[in-house]
Amino acid sequence: MPKSSSVLAAAAALGLALTFAYGAAGAAAESAVHAPAPIVTVASTAHSETAIFAGGCFWGVQGVFQHVKGVKSAVSGFTGGGGDTAHYQRVSDGDTGHAESVRIVFDPTQVSYADLLRIYFSVVADPTQLNAQGPDVGTQYRSALFPTNPAQRKVAEAYLDQLRKANVWKKPIVTRIEPLRPFYPAEAYHQDYLTLHPDSGYIRYNDLPKVAALKAMYPQLWREQPVLVNARG
Fold it and tell me: Which of 93, 188, 212, 231 has its CA 20 to 30 A from that of 224?
């Protein structure tokens, strides 16, 4: 079955919006940091692995990783609290323990967990902002990693240590490595939000520069067509 016309139209609109964002080199540069390549990596012959990242509003986090080659899916949701509070309006109160997060299923033979971490710290989240990202403030917007296996935890711990020693940022890194908790998908209207709403002022100002920076900084990992939650085909 071909993709729905609404998804195709949204993808076309996103492409146009990204053209403008990519052309705005200054905006893209402001949202990006050239994080060094991770020294510690773990090779894998598996073709499917799951990672969970929290880094502010999940619209932008999802939107960036949907454009990464080797990512099979990226779903916006909540991690850190209980199932009874895993709803957007409740999480927005800031006292549920949840972080707005994205569950990423990826092929480690195409893109490693270390690669995803490098992208995360380079273009997705500012690791120096405590319980906040950009205009969004609250514990639900914290910068956090939720390793799904011991190998991921080893790589994440080593990379955070590497970044701190490299003094990439002028302020201290406050990104936390948290115990794995259940992931709860967010409401349907939050999925693919960046692709479906490229003309949103919030998306244009806060998130499209991140996607443009991904394309500019990591062309070898860039995929033009995002892998969407709601795509049909």
Answer: 188
Q: pTM for the whole thing?
A: 0.89
- CA distances, 124 to each of 30, 106, 117, 196, 211 (Å): 12, 17, 10, 19, 9
Which range has the worst mean pLDDT, 1-5, 16-20, 51-55? Answer: 1-5
DSSP string, 102-166: EEEEE-TTTS-HHHHHHHIIIII--TT-TTEETTEESGGG-EEE--SSHHHHHHHHHHHHHHHHH
Give the active site residues.
57
- Give how far Cα 123 sits from Cα of 31, 61, 149, Å: 6, 9, 24
Furthest-apart CA atoms within the chain: distance in Å = 51
CA torsion, ordered 118, 123, 124, 126, to nearest 10 deg: 90
- Judge contact between 105 and 72, C-beta under 8 A: yes
State pLDDT tens for residues 32-80.
Answer: 899 999 999 998 889 999 999 999 999 999 999 999 999 999 999 999 9
pLDDT in tens, 193-212: 999 999 999 999 999 999 99
The bridge status of strand 143-145 relative to strand 136-137 is unpaired
| Residue 29 confidence (pLDDT) above 70 | no
Token pair in block for residue 22:
């990519």
